[in-house]
Structure formats: structure tokens, C-alpha cells
Q: What sequence folds into this?
């Protein structure tokens, strides 16, 4: 009985379409939709190819004539089974009714009321066609420049199958989602920004977040801030970025609120930053208190980690934790204090400091810390730049891994790189004079008769016997730029060649122990401070730091000439950056 009832309803409804009044067409279609099994029509996707075909492909053309459509629909419905799932011809009739209403204002030039009904019909047709994957009807709507239909069809087809015409039509029709997709598809910066703005101004949150990212990427935080402010309450990534901007503006109370909001919602980096903010406080060098080091026999090098911003304190904290958990270095007599977080702009750091081509800072503000804590070396974590060591100060940036820090720690102890140095650096360090002045613990080269310096190889043999370790001398790449064969006490790739994949042989750890016990193998931060104050004309301060350096020198019976050579060889990126610039 249900099938017969639906057939009668269909006849009565469609019979009223002869006048083609738009409002009536919409009412008829809506009634037909409700009369149809809504669970099947609106929620359950079509399971056969016939359902998604265009009407002419499916064997009917609902637009050819109203009477033919009525007869076809009524006959098909009357002869169908009682199951509504088999009443597919009525569904095509619904599409046809909505399509007639959708284009009726264009066909007959009707009043504003019909225009509104036509828009309603188009929206209803988009909804029904999208849920049932009826691509034909969406294409029909796109042909009359319906932007929403174009975007719906684009999403159904997928990015690979859909044409650029669809997303462009949708974007031009102010579909915010399409405008975002259109923006991200172009490589033209001006065009991308233009479409991101258009989508963002419509209140589309993903576009607002994307526009903020665009401005942050181009170092325009003042333009990013208002968009992040709009999205920070609903998007954890935006909340974190907005909190970071507020922190940089010294609005720290509000910054904590948004960072903690992002952390509670599961943002991993926000959780790390929130933890760091809880455990550390920004300070000034003059406010730093003393630190209790272990005995001098355990701390031949007393190293202070220093951070310069919110981002760098998070990185410094991670580096410190990695060091504490690194069992490989646990027996070495070097000590690293937990990081200090300095207030913004305390240190003047630059990736091309004073035009030298490498990361460095004005170290004079560190002087009170060095005095208060009896520091011999420092590690400064800055925003960006190439890792290097300069006169008792190591510079890292937020992208440097812990393995980089370990590599640079070895430079603190006088180790030299085992990758190929630049030509100028190789000329300086691989000459007889260079090796006579300073002998790195991990390098020797060909001499007139034997290795040079032979004492280095003799020391390798002694240390290997003492530790019951095999000694296998291998070639190093260090001096290759000037065609000099150099050697290292290992045949494997070590951490002095590749910090990330190289190993630290046991013999190297033994040699490292000896280097730390010998001040002649080190250049403390006191010499760096002496040079900095002397260069700025502050002779009294310079004299104090020179005296501190002389005291360090006397403790290890080191002469000034050896110390100067040590300074030149304890840096890899510093020297290489300069020589690469010259070349």
C-alpha cells in the first residue's frame, strides 16, 4: 500500500508544476523529499552507478516535458516494490523539480520572491546531490556559476580529478574554503596573500590561521597578531603562537594563559614551554647567584649554559637533560650547570656577528656570571646561526641537536675536526709549524720519516695499552684540501667527522680525560672577556680578565703562545666560516 500511496502523491504533486511557479516547484520538491524514505535519500549514499548517472544516462530526461516526467515517474513508482529503497525514479524527479526551480528566475525573469525561491532550490539541490554523490546535478549548477555547487563538486571529485575551473569558480563566488584552497595552490606570493585575506575576512578560521602563519613566516608578527587573536580561543596552535607573541612583547601574564591553554589541549611544544616557564625565570647577569660545583678534580671545566629567549631556554633545558642522561660522558671531569635564562636583549647575538660570518654574541654581559659562578666555559643558545666555539664560548642555535653540543665540547678540550677543513684552515693547522705549536689529541700527519708529531702517536699507543684497547690508526680527511695525508687513532667514522652518526671510541674518551686535566689544551672564557673589554677600550676590566687568564695559565704551566694556538684550533665553524668567505 505504501508504494501505491507514494505514486498517488507523486501524481498530485507533479501535476501542480505545469505553471512552473518557482515557489511551488520548491514546495513540491520539498514535499516529495519528505514523502520519500529520508533515511535512504539523505543519509545513505547511493550504492549503484545508475543512481549517480545523469538522467539521460539513467534512461530518463526529466527536463524533456512535464507530462512525460509525470507519466514516467508515476508508472515507475506504481510498478515498483513496496520497498522505498527501489523508488529511484522519484528521486530523479526530485532533482528535476529542484533544477527547474533553480534556473526558473533566469528562464522567466520572475520577481524577487521567485529569485529567493530559486536560491533556496539551488541550496537544496546542492545538499541532496552532495549527500548522494549526484555529480551531474552539481555540474549543472556549476554551469550557471553556482559557487557552492562548484566547491561541492570539487570536494566530491577530489583534488586530483577536479579541474581548476571548479575551485576558481568557487573562490570567485566567495566560498571561503575554496579561497583558502585557491590561495595555497598558487606559488605567487601576492596572489596567495590576496586570497588568504579574502577568505580570512569572511571569518573562516582555517584561513585566518593560515594568514597568521603567512605573516609569521615573513617576519611580520604585527600583522599576524590580530588574526591569531581571532583564532586563539578555538585553535590550540594559534593559542600557542599568540602566547609566544605576547611573551616577546613582555605581556607575560597573558602569554602564560594562552600557552597553558594550548598545553591543556595537547599541544606538545606548548606543554614543554609551559613546563619551562614553571621551572625557570628570566634574570639579569648581576642577579645570578653562586653555584655549588663538585670538587675541582671532578670539574676541570665548569660550563654554564645560557639561554637568550623563551625559545632558547626550552632548547637549553633539553640539551641539559640530554647531557645529564649521557652515560658516555659521565666519567669525564667536566661539569655543566643548569641553564640560566637571561632577560630579552641582555646579549647582543647575531648569526653574522660583526660581519664575521658566524654566530656570536657580545660576551661582556656574561662577566658577572663568570665571576659569581667561577665559570671556565659557557654555552650560549641563540635563535639562529652556525654552531662554533670561540675562546671558551660555544654558540648553538635552537635547531642544533645534542650531538652538535657533544662535538663542540670536544673542541673545548682541543680536539680538531676529522672532516675536510677549508683550504685556508688546512694550511694553518696541517703545517709543521702549526702542529709544533699545537698538537690536537686526535690528529697527526706524514713527516719526513715517520708520523709528525711522533709524540702524538706515542701517546696513542700508551693510552691504548693502559686501557687495554686496540690501536688502529686510520686516515683522516682533515688536511685533504692541501693534499696532506693526516691520521686519527681510529678507522671508523667518529663524532669529530659526523656528529650525528659518528661514534665516540673508548680511546677518544681516554684522550679527552687527559686533555681536560691539562689547561694547555683549553682556552677559557676569561681570554674571551679580556679581548672583548680590551677591544671596547675598557682597560681596567680587560686587565682583570687578563689576570684571570694568567692565573689559569699558571695552573697548568701553559705559555701564551700555546694558548693562542689553542684558541685557533678549538673552533671548527668559526674558522671555516671565515676562510670560506675569503675563498
A:
Amino acid at each position: 500500500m505504501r508504494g501505491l500511496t507514494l505514486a498517488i502523491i507523486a501524481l498530485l504533486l507533479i501535476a501542480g508544476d505545469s505553471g512552473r511557479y518557482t515557489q511551488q516547484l520548491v514546495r513540491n520538491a520539498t514535499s516529495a523529499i519528505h514523502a520519500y524514505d529520508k533515511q535512504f535519500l539523505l543519509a545513505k549514499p547511493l550504492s549503484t552507478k545508475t543512481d549517480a548517472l545523469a538522467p539521460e544516462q539513467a534512461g530518463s530526461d526529466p527536463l524533456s516535458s512535464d507530462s512525460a516526467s509525470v507519466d514516467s515517474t508515476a508508472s515507475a513508482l506504481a510498478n515498483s516494490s513496496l520497498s522505498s529503497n527501489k523508488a529511484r525514479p522519484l528521486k530523479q524527479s526530485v532533482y528535476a523539480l529542484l533544477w527547474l526551480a533553480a534556473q526558473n528566475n533566469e528562464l522567466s525573469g520572475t520577481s524577487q520572491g521567485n529569485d529567493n525561491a530559486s536560491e533556496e532550490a539551488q541550496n537544496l539541490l546542492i545538499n541532496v546531490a552532495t549527500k548522494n554523490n549526484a555529480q551531474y546535478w552539481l555540474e549543472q549548477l556549476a554551469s550557471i556559476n553556482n559557487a557552492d555547487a562548484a566547491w561541492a563538486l570539487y570536494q566530491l571529485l577530489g583534488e586530483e580529478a577536479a579541474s581548476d575551473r571548479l575551485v576558481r569558480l568557487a573562490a570567485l563566488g566567495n566560498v571561503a574554503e575554496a579561497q583558502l584552497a585557491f590561495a595555497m595552490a598558487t606559488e605567487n606570493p601576492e596572489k596567495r596573500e590576496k586570497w588568504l585575506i579574502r577568505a580570512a575576512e569572511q571569518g573562516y578560521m582555517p584561513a585566518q590561521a593560515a594568514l597568521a602563519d603567512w605573516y609569521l613566516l615573513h617576519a611580520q608578527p604585527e600583522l599576524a597578531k590580530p588574526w591569531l587573536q581571532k583564532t586563539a580561543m578555538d585553535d590550540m596552535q594559534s593559542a600557542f603562537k599568540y602566547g609566544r607573541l605576547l611573551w616577546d612583547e613582555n605581556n607575560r601574564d597573558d602569554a602564560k594563559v594562552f600557552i597553558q591553554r594550548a598545553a591543556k589541549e595537547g599541544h606538545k611544544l606548548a606543554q614543554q614551554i609551559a613546563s619551562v616557564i614553571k621551572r625557570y625565570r628570566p634574570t639579569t647577569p648581576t642577579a645570578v647567584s653562586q653555584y655549588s660545583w663538585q670538587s675541582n678534580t671532578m670539574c676541570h671545566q665548569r660550563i654554564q649554559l645560557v639561554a637568550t629567549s623563551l625559545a632558547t631556554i626550552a632548547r637549553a633545558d633539553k640539551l641539559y637533560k640530554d647531557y645529564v642522561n649521557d652515560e658516555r660522558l659521565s666519567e669525564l671531569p667536566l661539569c655543566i650547570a643548569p641553564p640560566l635564562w637571561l632577560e630579552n636583549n641582555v646579549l647582543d647575538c647575531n648569526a653574522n656577528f660583526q660581519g664575521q660570518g658566524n654566530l656570536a654574541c657580545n660576551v661582556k654581559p656574561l662577566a658577572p656570571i663568570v665571576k659569581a659562578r667561577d665559570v671556565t666555559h659557557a654555552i650560549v643558545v641563540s635563535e639562529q646561526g652556525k654552531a662554533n666555539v670561540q675562546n671558551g664560548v660555544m654558540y648553538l642555535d635552537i635547531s642544533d641537536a645534542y650531538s652538535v653540543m657533544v662535538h663542540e665540547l670536544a673542541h673545548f678540550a682541543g680536539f680538531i675536526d676529522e672532516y675536510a677543513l677549508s683550504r685556508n684552515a688546512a694550511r694553518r693547522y696541517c703545517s709543521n709549524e702549526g702542529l709544533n705549536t699545537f698538537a690536537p689529541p686526535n690528529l697527526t700527519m706524514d713527516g719526513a720519516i715517520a708520523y709528525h708529531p711522533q709524540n702524538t702517536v706515542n701517546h696513542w699507543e700508551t693510552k691504548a695499552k693502559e686501557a687495554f684497547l686496540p690501536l688502529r690508526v686510520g686516515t683522516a680527511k682533515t688536511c685533504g684540501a692541501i693534499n696532506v695525508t693526516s691520521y686519527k687513532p681510529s678507522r671508523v667514522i667518529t663524532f669529530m667527522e659526523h656528529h650525528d652518526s659518528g661514534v665516540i671510541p673508548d680511546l677518544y674518551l681516554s684522550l679527552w680525560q687527559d686533555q681536560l686535566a691539562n689547561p694547555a689544551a683549553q682556552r677559557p672564557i676569561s681570554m674571551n672577556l679580556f679581548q672583548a673589554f680590551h677591544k671596547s677600550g675598557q682597560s681596567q676590566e680587560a686587565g682583570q680578565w687578563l689576570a684571570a687568564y694568567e692565573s689559569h695559565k699558571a695552573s697548568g704551566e701553559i705559555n701564551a703562545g700555546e694558548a693562542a694556538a689553542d684558541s685557533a684550533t678549538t673552533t671548527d665553524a668559526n674558522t671555516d666560516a671565515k676562510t670560506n668567505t675569503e675563498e
Remarks:
- Residues 85 and 428 are 87 Å apart (CA to CA).
- Residues 88-108 form the longest helix (21 residues).
